[in-house]
Amino acid sequence: MLQAAYVEQLYPFGQTWMYNNTSITFATHVVSHAGGKPIETLIEENLLTPLGMESSSFNYDATPPAENYAWGHPPIYGEGSISDLKPYYIPLIRESAASGALRSTINDMLKYARFQLDGADAAGNQLLSKEALDYAHAPAVEAEAGDFTGLTWFIHDYGGVTSPSHGGNWPGTRSFLQLIPDHDFAVVVLIHSDRGAEAYKKVANAMVKAFTGIEADSPVAAGADPAVLDPFVGVFKGNSQNIEIRKEDDKYVFVQFSALTSGADPAPANVANTAEGWFIITEGPNEGALGELLEDPSGELNYVRFNHRIFIRGDGAVDEFSLSGSVFDKPAE
């Protein structure tokens, strides 16, 4: 962990925002040190047990639990066969304890959602004050495509109504939790598929509308203006996923490649621009997803922020990159 002090950041500190699990990992070590116990024990003692989350636990075993476990499933696109939908399991890693290593259920996550709304445990004892919750849920830093982040929450503003949310993923699974404190509302969606993100926002938007009357207000396509989209053209490389914007005649096409899905990625999809100057995918599984072009530290437009992460303009094809040094780095067989 100490070596991280010598790792060069993508951006100078405080210049821009990118979602980052590593920061949570560092915070985990700080909390563990201050609390004198492993982070799993502290979470169990201070959250899971008081909230009555009896079906939630940490598990790093190489094999899944023998019972009460929902297997994950790989993505299938295009002409894929149902026979390809084979359950699979990748063990969680201890380093991700506080950023996504908890196995849980809908009922337990709704207990956590209730705690985020009122700060109380299952017995009615106040664990967090309203002031603390308001601080965590308030827009603090400008983030992706017009939204904000709070204290580990993504924050969307529905015309003055604040809505914190957070999604999660691990190979084979997707999850989503959204709060609207002003309406005492929460929705949790758990999906055991790598394509779950295509469903959970639609489900959440429908639930928000049904129970609060609030309509989703996402940006829309405004055309395919070369002045806006030409600077996006190129290959941009990430940790375990790369993206590319191609110009084909008068069309712009989005391509993605993930090392974690063995090439099972969505087909190339058409791209347009929004009035705000972002690109928006207009078809396929990623329909509605937005991307922004950002300046690198030298001032050149070489970074794309997409799906909360930053991808760096690079050389080579979209399917060429190394996982060396990442958590997905595997020894040669």
What does this structure look like?
By secondary structure, this protein is an alpha+beta fold. It has two domains: 2-212, Beta-lactamase, CATH 3.40.710.10; 221-313, Beta Barrel (Lipocalin), CATH 2.40.128. It is 22% helix and 26% strand. The protein is built from seven helices and 17 strands. The protein has an eight-stranded antiparallel beta barrel with strand order 10-11-12-13-14-15-16-17. Strands 3-4-5-6-7-8 form a six-stranded antiparallel beta sheet, sandwiched between helices. The two termini are 28 Å apart.
- Sheet with most strands: 8 strands, antiparallel, barrel
Q: What is the overall silhouette?
A: globular
CATH topology of the largest domain: Beta-lactamase
Q: C-alpha Rg, in Å? A: 21 Å
CATH architecture of the largest domain: 3-Layer(aba) Sandwich
Low-pLDDT segments, ≥5 res: none
Query: What's the SSE pattern?
Result: HHEHEHHEEEEEEHEHEEEEEEEE
**In percent, how helical is the residue content?**
10-25%
Salient structural properties:
single chain, 333 residues, alpha+beta, Beta-lactamase, Lipocalin, eight-stranded antiparallel β-barrel
Short description:
With 333 residues, the chain is an alpha+beta fold. The chain has helices spanning 21-35, 39-51, 97-100, 106-118, 130-137, 197-212, 226-229; strands at 57-58, 102-103, 141-142, 148-149, 154-158, 161-170, 173-180, 185-191, 221-223, 234-237, 241-248, 251-258, 269-274, 279-281, 290-295, 301-306, 309-313.
